[in-house]
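cache lookup: miss for this entity combination. No prior model stored, computing from scratch. Input as submitted by user K.M.:
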Amino acid sequence: DAEITQSPRHKITETGRQVTLACHQTWNHNNMFWYRQDLGHGLRLIHYSYGVQDTNKGEVSDGYSVSRSNTEDLPLTLESAASSQTSVYFCASSRDIQETQYFGPGTRLLVL
Amino acid sequence: QKEVEQDPGPLSVPEGAIVSLNCTYSNSAFQYFMWYRQYSRKGPELLMYTYSSGNKEDGRFTAQVDKSSKYISLFIRDSQPSDSATYLCAMTSRGGAGGTSYGKLTFGQGTILTVHP
């Protein structure tokens, strides 16, 4: 069955380190999204991509970057991890813009 | 003020009760409305999807959209302990390709629901 996976599922890192979270989908969806989820804020969009070589900033993109070299993957990089980036990160994908987004299981990141 | 407001609860009801979950929004361009259910330590999963105003029913779940009031609701009939989860409303506009809201979902904060046996 097609699916969307994230790795690692849990990560502990130190401030200042570079961290990359992986997202892989097998639906061949053009659109991929990264969100963070924090208490009191719901899900907030970090970056998104509408296709290979396309990337766009979301509402909370500072300190994060993404690249899209193929359809299946959209890795999220924290250039220099900060304690404020401790959160649960979700990747999502969709086939068309108006269609539903399917979410991965999430990555819990703790920055010490 | 947030674009989408949702009462975070928590909401606790007995099994069999009718549950009403609500969101209000300020952006009149929103046309597509969704409800996601999120179990503890899992990713959100789509529960209901509606376009523009009106009602949509799926089993025990009914989604209502009132665009004139900028208000959406999710009703759960005969609630079950397995319905215990966080419910997130989400919405988006069609916009134009490349527009600021094109294809992007705006989420409410989520309501934590517990259904007691």
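stored under new cache key. Chain B has a mean pLDDT of 89.
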